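Risk mitigation, structural track. In case the binding assays with S-adenosylmethionine fail to produce interpretable data, a predicted complex structure has been prepared as a fallback.
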Amino acid sequence: MSTLLNEPVAALLEKLFTDGKRVDDEVIPRVRARAKSVGGPMNDRLMADLLDDAYISVSPEVGLFLYQVVRMKRPGLIVEFGTSLGLSTIHMAAAVRDNGVGRIVTTELSEKKAQRAAEHIQAAGLADLVEIRRGDAFQTLSRDTTPIDLLLLDGWKELYLPLLKQLEPRLPPGAIVIGDDLKLMPEILASYVEYVRANYLSLDLPIDDGLELSLRQ
Ligand SMILES: C[S@@+](CC[C@H](N)C(=O)[O-])C[C@H]1O[C@@H](n2cnc3c(N)ncnc32)[C@H](O)[C@@H]1O
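Fallback model:
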């Protein structure tokens, strides 16, 4: 049976999704109220601070989809923008374990979240497959040259396009890019969608908050 459905991963994910719903139901309305009072756009760091306790993770359905994609693609290197508390990372790492090949580099701006994600990934028994880069992904990903086979974009939405452009030289033909939350923030992501539709083989998948699945040509 797959690592995703076996212990310790299955019970851990069930607990994290349950805790995440409870916490986010409380935190997100507070952040929305704060955003309204700020008036203009909030900077990345302030947003990360306000959402420091929030899970804001992919749904179980998107998690399962990520597991499936990693099993099908068998990527050597997966890069994730936005670890949060590690839920999407655990789904992909479970697939890497079952593939028997590959590794994940995941990036998180909030030190507190990165620490908690590391604990969750450790509890899942997947820490040997995952490297968490702490700090701004633009910096923490700037020095590598290894080709990226699968890129998951799930950090702040206005950064998808600039980060994709920074990492593009490392995306070989056949690389997959997945952007999350397309239905949730269509205006902010409009330029990202326009770019991948013009330069990749790309389509939207109506799973949960909406994914854009793009294939590098
Ligand atoms: C939607 S959450 C990620 C959810 C996670 N992928 C999951 O499914 O569990 C977005 C995360 O991106 C992080 N983030 C935002 N800007 C970032 C940056 N420039 N570098 C690294 N992480 C960033 C935030 O702190 C936040 O935890």
